[in-house]
Every structure is written in structure tokens, then in C-alpha cells.
Amino acid sequence: NSVSDVGTYVSELLTSTGCDSTITTELTVNLNVLIQVNESICAGEIFLLPDGTPVTTADVYSTTLTTSNGCDSTIVTTITINPVYSSTENIAICSGSSYLLPNGNSVSDAGTYISELLSVLGCDSIITTELTVNPVITTQVSASICDGETYILPDGTPVTTGDVYSITLSTSSDCDSTIVTTLTVHPVYSSTEYIAICSGSSYSLPNGNSVSAPGTYISSLLTIYGCDSVITTELTVNPVITNQMSASICDGGSY
Fold first, then answer.
1. Residues of the chain with pLDDT > 70: what percent?
2. CA count, 13 A, side-chain hemisphere, 75
3. Nearest to residue 219, comparing CAs of 184, 195, 237, 185?
4. Between 106 and 242, whose confidence is greater?
């Protein structure tokens, strides 16, 4: 008889001499084993299946082995590939500042920095930081105005007095740009001159015009710095006097 169930089976036979031969069979049924395994590796790594086969790609692998009691043991391995990250970030700072890299190091010089980290899944995460250091600019400016005029500083502030003004602005790279303006105020001159000439003569005014009549004349000039110089000329014309005199002397005398 053929059996497949667990149990005790009695077989009654006859020996070759015709006597009873009773055989009791204790039948045990060993199970075929099925094992589910979930494994993960990082991209580029190798995983060895239970039978020693190396694999590098995500998939479901079925491996059949033999147990110690001679039955099949099937191991189903589900492989997951976790990514390895590699990225580049471009960072700009101002001169005198520092930048905290992803690995926690602080740097202030321009250059290329590599930060090697681990992702939450334990795989490499490489961040390349390209660091640029933009300058903080200081510019010296010399400017001049005439007394009474207004000068507009780089930030839009109007000033009228001579001084040194420091203005801090932001460049296109968001760094400080300091403009130091030295402002000079040149004078505007206004004077009056009193001139007297004789009748029949003429006077050359500061502006180059020639006049001979009495009066007040305004000459508007520019100084060497381009500022107004107003000279008022008060011109007086004194008469030329002619007197008629009669005189006599004796013969032989002198006058």
C-alpha cells in the first residue's frame, strides 16, 4: 500500500517459512520549507543569495536548497536597491563671512569642498560645494561743489557742506559696497570795487568790457573751480577842469 499521511501503519506478512511477520511503520511527513526574506543594498553593492549567487539589481530571487532531512527549502529573497546620492551646490558668500558645509565644517575660502554623508537608508550621499567668495568693495570718491549748491551722495542723501561721507550699499552679489566721498565746497565770490577815471578816459571792466560813463557795472565771472565770481564796479568819472586866466608882466620880467 502507498501512504502519504502521518501515522502508524501495520503490515502483516509471512516469512519464507510461513510464519507471521508484523512490521509497524511510524510515518513522519517532513514539510518543505518556504522562507520569505527582504533585503536592501546600496546602489553599486553586491548581495549574496543563500546559494552564494551574487546579485546587484532589485528583483525577487527564489533559491531552492535541501534541508538536513532531505526536503526542499525554498528561500524567496526580495532585493531593494537604495540610491547613492551625488549633488553639487553653488554657494556665494561675502569676503569676511563663512559658510557651514553639509558635513558641519565651516569654511571661508573659495574652493571646491566634498561632504561625504549617509542617507537615512545608510547609503552614501556626496555633496560637492562650489564656494565663491565675493569681495566687499570700498571706493574712494573726490567731489566738489560751489558754495550754495547741493551734492547727492550715492544713497540719495543731499549734502551742502564739505566733509567726508561714508555710505554703505549692497552690490549685485549682496555684499557691502562702501563709498567714501570727500566733498569740497569752493567759495562763490562777490566784491565791489570803486573806480574813478577822468572825463574822456575809459575803464576796462573785469569781464573785459570797456566803459567811460559813470555808473554801476556787474561782471559775472567764473573762478578756476567753475564757481561764480561777481564783481560790482562803481565807476566815477571826474571832470577835466579848464580855467581861463589873464596875466600881465613888465617888459623884461618873467611869468
1. 97
2. 15
3. 195
4. 106
Residue 106, pLDDT > 80, answer: yes
pLDDT class of 94 with cuts at 50, 70, 90? very high
- Structure confidence by residue, pLDDT tens digits, 51-89: 899 999 999 999 988 776 777 788 999 999 999 999 999
